[in-house]
What we know:
About 5% of the residues lie in helices and about 55% in strands. By secondary structure, it is mostly beta strands. A hairpin with a 2-residue loop joins strand 1 and strand 2.
Amino acid sequence: MLALVLLMAPGLAGAQQITREGGRYVTTIKQTYDVKPGGRLEVDRVTGEVLVSTWAQNHVEILEVLRMDVDGEDEARRIAARALKQYELRANTVTVVGDRADRYVQRQFAVRIPVSFNVEVETRGGGIRVEGVKGRVSLTTAGGAVTVQRVEGDVEASSAGGALQFLEIRGALDANTAGGDITVEGVTGRLEAVTAGGGVTVREAGQDVLVTTAGGRLDLRDIKGALEARTAGGNIRVANVQGRVEVTTAGGEIDLQNLQRGVHAGTSGGDITGRGLQGAVEVETAAGDIVLRDVTGPVEARTSVGNIEVEVGVQGAERPRRMWLKSSYGDINLTLPARLPARIEAELSLPGGRFSRNDIFSDFPLSRDRSGSTLQSEGLINGGGDLIELRSNGGNIYIRKK
């Protein structure tokens, strides 16, 4: 919409044509500069939207629309003339500078640059869109959305209050917003995304990812590097990560799928589910169930209030692995491959003493010892191996064979 408005608006580079629209004076400025590839566009402290695209010419073309809420046409012409003086070409750098005196002027820019060009844009209030650039991109807005797509180069973007969207970034990405969602679909370099109040979505990241939000859901998938993600309040979904994963939420559910190098996950209140987890697994929730299926490495799982269900995958079933499962109040249900070598120690606290109906059930032959309000079962399976410890203070323990 911005580009269409700018292209249709009348205007000249010299004496501006002034029109009256909706109680405002409107004019268009068009400037063109000869440049070489590898130069820089700097738009500094302007108030308004900025659209940057590329074309197959060694020119920078700027179309600017000024909407002026001023008393008369003479004042509007003075503002337009002053705006022209804020354009400059020096040492292959095209600069446009804002003016704090133009409090009642809204500026909109559509800029076309060579494909190989660097971009730096700062707005006091307005959205920014950049696409098709081969070069470094740095964007800052005091209030507006930012969209970047099809860029070959490192990207930095921040907004004091707006959503950030990035598509097909061939480089590293650093994204920060004080209030809005962050969406990333395709980044080849390292990714850091921070929002003070919004969700974060990541699809396809080529290296390590660091994500932080003060309050919002996280949906993070298809990551080739390691992942570290934190939210102060929201659900977390992670899938298809090749590196080590560490995720925490102060209040929400966690869902983990197809992780290759292990995971550490914690929530202060919510369920944790997982499937296809390789490497060491450490999960903890203060209040919620834990359900893990097809895990192939060591497992440490704890919940203060809730059930724990773990199903060990048959892949590498002969390899020993350590497990520690504890529920302060809930059942523990563990399913093991029939060929898994292990030493099992299960302990159940019986809140009702000898009148308690809680018990330990096992498909493997284990000894049983009951002393007061404690029931213990232990034994070696398949010649023994790593220790599997099961602890429940107020539920049943099930040890199943598959």
